[in-house]
Design goal:
By secondary structure, the protein is an alpha+beta fold. The protein is 28% helix and 24% strand. It has four helices and five strands, in the order H-E-E-H-E-H-E-E-H. Strand 3, helix 3 and strand 4 form a beta-alpha-beta unit. The N and C termini lie far apart (30 Å). The protein binds tetrahydrodeoxyuridine (THU). Tetrahydrodeoxyuridine (THU) binds next to strand 1 and helix 2.
């Protein structure tokens, strides 16, 4: 897996962030086991709770394009103030649970970076211990 490429894809996705309410722009790139990548950005709304995070945008895009359980290998996330420096951006709890629906938590990798070069990386199981499933 080319982690730097995945981080670069997340940075590309971030360029499309719609974040007029928080001013915090996030991009995510979701990697499939076959090498396909789905991008997502946060999409905000005047009714704040309607906002969709970048990670779920990427995940829902993948699912809407025919991907499903077991297809996913990793997700990279980058975020920060719209016109400022990147800050560490691990996925929120809702996105962790959304990813857990479709990924093998023991092997699925989650990474984030503030420079597109060095990164922090954890399995989804580390980030979502005792996640709920049916
Ligand atoms: N956000 C994401 O897109 N992903 C995260 O992991 C954390 C937060 C978005 C939601 C909202 O548009 C903005 O960042 C500030 O919370």
């Amino acid at each position: 897996m080319d982690r730097k490429r995945l981080l670069a894809e997340a940075a590309k996705a971030r360029e499309n962030s719609y974040c007029p309410h928080s001013g915090f722009a996030v991009g995510a790139a979701l990697l499939c086991k076959d090498g396909a990548i789905y991008r997502g950005c946060n999409v905000e709304n005047a009714s704040y709770g309607v906002t969709n995070c970048a990670e779920r945008t990427a995940l829902f895009s993948a699912v809407a394009n025919g991907r499903g359980r077991g297809d996913f290998a990793a997700i990279a996330v980058v975020g920060g103030p719209k016109d400022g420096e990147l800050v560490p951006c691990p996925p929120c709890g809702v996105c962790r649970q959304a990813l857990a629906e479709f990924a093998d938590a023991e092997t699925f990798l989650v990474l984030w970076s503030t420079d597109g070069n060095s990164y922090e990386e954890h399995t989804l199981a580390e980030l979502l211990p005792y996640g709920f499933s049916l």
